[in-house]
Amino acid sequence: MKTIAVVALAISGALSVATLHAGDSDASYPGMYVKDSAITTKVKTKLVTKEPTTLTNVQVNTDRDGVVWLSGTVPTKEARDRAETIAKETSGVTGVHNNIVVEP
Fold first, then answer.
1. What does the angle CA 88 – CA 92 – CA 93 come to, to the nearest 5 degrees?
2. Tens-digit pLDDT profile for the chain (104 aa)?
3. Within a domain: 44
4. Residue 51: predicted pLDDT
5. Across-strand partners of 98?
6. CATH number, domain with residue 45
7. Beta carbons within 10 angstroms of residue 67's beta carbon
8. Is residue 34 part of a domain?
9. Is 89 part of any domain?
């Protein structure tokens, strides 16, 4: 019985990973077909932790080369610049494309 539970858990985990990676392709930016989810997660976590009220509408994508693409909206230019700084200071990030729009 324990073997069946372990096998079911392993299959479930494999399907979850496959599903996550299937949604990782994004043709809107060149080179985005293979993403680095670990860097994306690190940047998103820092954005929400350091600026929870202003940076929650920022989307983060990372390409296979460690380049982060920021998009979304923020209320001020300072918030836009802060998001870029946070991304640049994240381990593994090799560059940042800041496409965040300021909407007061």
1. 35
2. 554 444 344 454 444 443 344 444 444 555 444 467 899 999 999 999 988 888 889 999 999 899 999 999 999 999 999 999 999 999 999 999 999 999 98
3. yes
4. 85
5. 70
6. 3.30.1340.30
7. 19
8. yes
9. yes
Overall residue count recorded for the chain in this entry: 104
Nearest CA to 60 out of 18, 100, 104, 30 is that of 100
Nearest Cα to Cα of residue 87 among 6, 79, 77: 79
The total number of structural domains that make up the chain:
1
Whether 20 maps to a domain, the answer reads: no
How far is it, in rounded angstroms, from Cα 26 to Cα 77?
A: 27
Range of the domain at 37: 26-102
* Interstrand relation of 67-74 and 95-102 (parallel, antiparallel or unpaired): parallel
Q: How far is residue 45's CA from residue 43's CA, in Å, rounded to a whole number?
A: 5
Closest CA to 78 of 97, 61, 48, 54: 54
pTM score: 0.66
